[in-house]
Every structure is written in C-alpha cells, then in structure tokens.
C-alpha cells in the first residue's frame, strides 16, 4: 500500500534558521527593539493627571475609563474604536497591495516573539549546524542541559509577556507587588498564565506552523496582490540562465565564464533557504508560507558581494518589473485605499479633537408614560445622564427650552456638580398644562448650562413631552 495513502498529513520538518547580516535584518532588529521597549516599559511609565491614575496607559475596566496619556476614553466613545478598526483594516489592505506581507515580516507579534526565541536558542545551542548536531546525537547530557535551559528562558520570556499585558489593566506597581505576594485577583493570574502558555507554544514550539496553518492572513492575502505588488522574488532569468544554476567550480568561478557556459548567477549555495524562518526555497516562486521578511535577500546579497557580482538576484520587486516592465504604484486600487484611509484618520482625529467637555443623554421613564395631576396638568418623567469628560470640576444647571409654561422639578436638584471624569444621573419631573388642541407629542429640549468662568457652551438634549 502507498505510504501517502495512510498519512492524512505530512509530519513536521524541523527548521533551523541560520543567522544572517544585512540591511533587512538590521531593520527587523530595530523594529524588534522598539516594539519590545514600548510593550514592556509602557505600563511602568508614570503620567501626571489632575484626576485619575498616574499611569500613562491604563485600561480601567471597573471604572470604565481607558487612559492613553492625556486622552481619556469613555464607553460612549466606542465610535472611536470602530474607526480605529476600520483604519487598521484599510492600512493592512493598502500596505499589502503596495508592498505585500510586510506586516508579517516585520511587525506581527508572532514574528517579533519568534525572533527573540530564536535568539535565545542560538545563544544557548549555537548556530544552525550545532543545533542540528545536538538533535542528531540523541539524548546526551549536553542536549538535556541546553534544551532545558532554552525552554526555561522561553518560559521566562512568556511569563514576562503575560504579566506585562496584565499590568495594562491596573496600576502596574501595585498589581505586580500583589501578584508576587499571591494577593492579586484571580483574573490577573488567569490572564498572565494563559498568555504565558500561548506565547510559549506559538513562538517556541509551533513557530512557522502558526503562519502556515493557523493565520488566516496567509490564505487571503493573495487576493490583494497584483502584478505591481512588491514581493520578495528570485530573478529566475538572471539566476538560472539557459543552463540552470551551478555551484562555483574552478572552471565556473568568474561570472563571464558562467555566462559563456550558459549558467546563471545562482551558485546553489542554499543560504537563502537556510535563513528562511518558514523553511521555503524562494527560488521556487511566491509561496503561501513566505512572510516577506527579506532575510533571503540579505543572504543572497551577502554571497553576491563576496563574489564581486551585482546584488539583487533576490530582491523586493513586482511581477511586472521581473517581466521587464515598470512597477505602477498609482493605481485605482491603491489610490482608493489611500483616500479611504486618509478620510478615516481625519475623522478619528477630528472626533477626538472636537470632543466636548461633557456629554449627556436623556431617556423618558415610562412607568407610567404620563400622569394626570389633581390640577389637570400632565406630568412626564425623564432620566438625564451626564458625563464629565474633562479633568476639571463641572457645575451644570438643568433647564428647558421649547415648552413654554412647563414646570421643572429636578431630583436631587437643578444644579449638578460633577467631579473630573465623573458621571451622574438626575431625574426630572416635568409638568405641563396641556390644551385639548395640543398634539400627543410636543418636541422640546433640556438645556444643560455650565456655570463659571471659561465654562463650555450649553448642551441641548432634544426629547418629547407626551400629553396623553
């Protein structure tokens, strides 16, 4: 029986990425340092506020306040989150259409953490040949020691990652102290150890399988590519020639001799395959596993420089350019994505910049909807919720506009005093001597007037008065 018929899937082939130096590897290290610096240090950054916690970034779920430096986000600002998600999607589509999977290769959390785990592995176990030999020689004492130390440091990084994420949701110094004193809330331990487990599994054990099998982006990103999208590509016409790739020999040492023999510039050294974190051969064309990290570009350019030949045998280019054309960046698709992205960014910035010092909502209480009093007047009940979105104390007076002759009763009082970033609900009873000619519903507005020097503008809350 055919062996392939009895195996529902292919067993994993271990990948041992080799170290490489070059421009793109340097860019990846710079992004890695920046990303780790922001993620791990930001919870500890102090930020002085008139009101609220003195932590630069804090997601305070019990109080329902998200603190981002000088910006405080309230639940009623959920619209900002929707715009932010639209911006993220449009940015991904725009960048992918222009430059391929640069998000995957440089900014994805899976890529960043896997890079660190590989650095730890190389530091303890050595370069690619040493790591391969370590696994080929069985379970020796050296292997147990090095693998044990590797996994211990992986778990330490994973724990640090999980704990840091948890520190964004409470005061970092206080939560960290209570965490190690075993006095933190259960949610803190659950979140920390869940993220510790996923980080360890994804970055340490699964690695390229996350990108190949688990990430949906690898599957649908191809629909955003076209002939002008920049991708990491192998120049087959230059590398193969008419006689194909050949290793360097005494007779085929110079570029001129190779061209005369019909061979291309690729010397079949395999360096581009050895540095690939997903283990593919870029010379076989664009593949779903390729994350466009460009490490193969650095590897090939290094070999070309050592040989004294032009670089760029593997490079960022487009299918149109490989075919001899010119890459077009100004296309209807990219212009459309760019305009939509710009509009979304402007909308978000405008919404944040023009947010009022306070907001409010009014809702009519309907138990019962109307009440007829002994003097024949009609009474309606309302609940007004006011949110002070500023860092200053706010005094408001409740009035009405558009319902002449109505009498207002505010509980606990017509004057509202709100502390910075506080919310308050007042209940209003509105009495009106309705006439027989009045409609069933009379539109009017509650007027909230701030008091004091430099007070913001008054706010009108349109609503209706039911006469029957």
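Q: What amino acid sequence fits the structure above?
A:
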């Amino acid at each position: 029986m055919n062996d392939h018929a009895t195996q529902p899937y292919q067993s994993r082939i271990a990948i041992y990425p080799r170290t490489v130096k070059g421009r793109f590897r340097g860019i990846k290290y710079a992004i890695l340092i920046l990303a780790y610096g922001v993620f791990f240090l930001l919870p500890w950054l102090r930020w002085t506020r008139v009101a609220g916690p003195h932590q630069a970034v804090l997601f305070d779920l019990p109080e329902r306040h998200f603190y981002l430096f000088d910006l405080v986000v309230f639940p009623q600002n959920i619209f900002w989150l929707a715009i932010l998600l639209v911006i993220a999607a449009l940015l991904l589509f725009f960048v992918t259409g222009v430059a391929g999977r640069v998000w995957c290769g440089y900014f994805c959390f899976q890529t960043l953490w896997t890079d660190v785990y590989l650095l730890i592995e190389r530091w303890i176990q050595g370069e690619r040949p040493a790591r391969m030999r370590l696994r080929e020689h069985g379970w020796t004492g050296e292997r147990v020691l090095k693998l044990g130390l590797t996994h211990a440091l992986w778990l330490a990084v994973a724990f640090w990652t999980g704990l840091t994420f948890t520190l964004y949701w409470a005061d970092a110094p206080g939560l960290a102290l209570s965490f190690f004193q075993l006095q933190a809330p259960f949610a803190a331990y659950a979140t920390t150890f869940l993220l510790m487990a996923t980080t360890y599994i994804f970055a340490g054990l699964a690695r390229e399988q996350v990108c190949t099998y688990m990430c949906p982006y690898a599957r649908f990103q191809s629909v955003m590519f076209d002939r002008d999208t920049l991708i990491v590509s192998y120049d087959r016409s230059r590398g193969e020639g008419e006689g194909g790739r050949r290793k360097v020999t005494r007779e085929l040492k110079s570029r001129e001799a190779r061209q005369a023999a019909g061979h291309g510039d690729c010397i079949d050294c395999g360096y581009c395959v050895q540095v690939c974190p997903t283990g593919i051969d870029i010379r076989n064309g664009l593949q779903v596993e390729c994350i466009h990290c460009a490490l193969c570009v650095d590897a090939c350019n290094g070999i070309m420089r050592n040989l004294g030949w032009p670089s760029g045998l593997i490079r960022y280019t487009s299918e149109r350019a490989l075919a001899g054309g010119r890459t077009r960046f100004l296309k209807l698709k990219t212009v459309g994505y760019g305009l939509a992205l710009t509009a979304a960014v402007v909308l978000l910035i405008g919404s944040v910049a023009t947010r009022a010092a306070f907001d409010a909502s009014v809702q009519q209480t309907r138990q019962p909807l109307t009440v007829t009093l002994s003097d024949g007047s009609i009474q309606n009940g309302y609940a007004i919720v006011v949110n002070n979105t500023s860092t200053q104390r706010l005094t408001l007076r409740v009035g009405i506009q558009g319902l002449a002759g109505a009498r207002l009763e505010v509980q606990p009082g017509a004057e509202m005093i709100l502390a910075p970033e506080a919310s308050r609900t007042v209940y209003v009873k509105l009495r009106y001597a309705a006439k027989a000619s009045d409609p069933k519903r009379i539109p009017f507005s509650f007027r909230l007037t701030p008091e004091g020097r430099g007070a913001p503008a008054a706010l009108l809350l349109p609503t209706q008065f039911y006469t029957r």
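Q: And what stands out in the fold?
A: The two ends are 85 Å apart (CA to CA).
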